[in-house]
Write a structure and sequence with these properties.
The chain is mainly beta. It contains one helix and nine strands; from the N terminus they run ββββαβββββ. The protein has one helix at about 50-55; strands spanning about 10-15, 20-25, 30, 40-45, 60, 65, 75-80, 85-90, 95-100. Strands 1-9-4-6 form a four-stranded antiparallel beta sheet, with no helix packed on it. The protein has a three-stranded antiparallel beta sheet with strand order 3-7-5. The longest helix has 7 residues, at about 50-55. The protein is globular.
């Protein structure tokens, strides 16, 4: 059963169902044995745990991984190791966080032109520095 580490934690800790090895540069599926049913208008976001990232270079591959409200299968977390070496995940080890968030369903309108702004089409770094 996922739980929060503290009363004010925004994420629910997801734990590994069994032992698994995570290797540098590879993708490993970590089974949680958990399935959930979210109400329409809500999603789950699977995010890395900062402790695993800092101590072992472990992160969630598709972060944040999205769990749609119509998904009914097992939550499987895709982990990778960004630093050399291997790391063994133990059964019941906390491997990721699940944050439940509200989803907006905007009306999509196709336009031939967009309104102008001071920034315009300028991308990365174009808003200036502090």
């Amino acid at each position: 059963m996922p739980s929060r580490a503290t009363e004010l934690s925004s994420g629910l800790d997801l734990c590994s169902l069994s032992k698994a090895d995570v290797s540098y540069g590879s993708v490993t599926e970590i089974h949680t044995g958990l399935a959930l049913e979210l109400d329409h208008g809500w999603e789950g976001q699977v995010r890395p745990r900062s402790g695993l990232a800092r101590k072992h270079g472990i992160t969630v591959v598709n972060t944040p991984g999205t769990v749609d409200s119509d998904y009914r299968g097992e939550l499987i977390v895709l982990l990778t190791k960004l630093t050399p070496g291997n790391y063994t995940i133990s059964p019941k080890e906390r491997i990721a966080q699940l944050v439940i968030s509200q989803v907006a369903y905007p009306k999509i309108i196709v336009l031939n032109e967009l309104s102008e702004t001071d920034r315009g089409v300028n991308g990365f770094g174009s808003s200036g520095s502090f």
